[in-house]
Amino acid sequence: MTEGGAGKSGEAPATVEATMTIKKAPRAEVEELPKAIVRRVVKDKLSQLASGGEEEDVSVQKDALLAFSESTRIFIHYVSAT
Predict the structure, then answer these.
(1) What is the pLDDT of residues 5-32, one digit of tens each?
(2) Most exposed of 22, 41, 56, 76 (fewest Cβ within 10 Å)?
(3) Which SS3 state, helix, strand or coil, does residue 68 take?
(4) Helix axes 35-51, 62-81, angle to 10 degrees
(5) Distances in Å between the alpha carbon of 26 and those of 29, 30, 34, 37, 79?
(6) What is the pLDDT of residues 35-78, one digit of tens each?
(7) How far apart are CA 4 and CA 70, in angstroms?
(8) CA diameter of the chain
(9) Residue 29 in contact with residue 68, Cβ under 8 Å?
(10) Is 36 in contact with 51 (CB distance < 8 Å)?
(11) ∠ Cα 9 14 16 (to 5°)
């Protein structure tokens, strides 16, 4: 047997090296709201307002959905801060 675990000392750098090469997966921004849910809520409400309660298909542009999402996010921050 060797003193100080000489055989193990060679393994430690490899383990550290392997750990350092693991890349973090890109994650969605925490503050970003789910786009599908925002789209569903906006389309449901706009179709109710447009048809007086009847089911009607309403199309919403991408920029409008982005504006709704951003304004909702800011509103949530405001409500949670006060």
Answers:
(1) 555 555 555 555 555 566 665 555 567 8
(2) 22
(3) helix
(4) 100
(5) 9, 12, 16, 22, 29
(6) 999 999 999 888 888 877 667 788 889 999 999 999 999 999 99
(7) 59
(8) 86
(9) no
(10) no
(11) 95
